[in-house]
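Supplementary Text 2. Reproducibility record for the structural model of the 116-residue chain.

All settings were left at their defaults, and a single model was retained for analysis rather than an ensemble. We include the record here because the model underlies the residue-level annotations in Supplementary Table 4.
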Amino acid sequence: QVHLVESGGGLVQAGGSLRLSCAASGFTSKYYTIGWYRQAPGKEREGVGCISSNDDSTYYADSVKGRFTISRDNAKNTFYLQMNSLKPEDTAVYYCKAVDRAREYWGKGTLVTVSS
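Retained model, structure tokens:
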């Protein structure tokens, strides 16, 4: 059973930066995908980006491309979402999701608030 714990959320001014972390454990395969998602108040959850363990390839939603970067620290089994040039519309609860052997696992999320 994969276990995910997000951290690093908080309040930041527009134009600022935050780095979110997703500590992961329990993978049963060396091939898995970690995705970052967010859900703003009153809106559907949307994908932000993802990284593949196979080749570290990444994908980003158009809304964050060029501002957000996903990376990982293999030694710590931790995944990161570096968020730069934050905008008020980036305000949301951010979640990480793992897909391991076709099963999905979610963390409980961390709140990011961007003030204007």
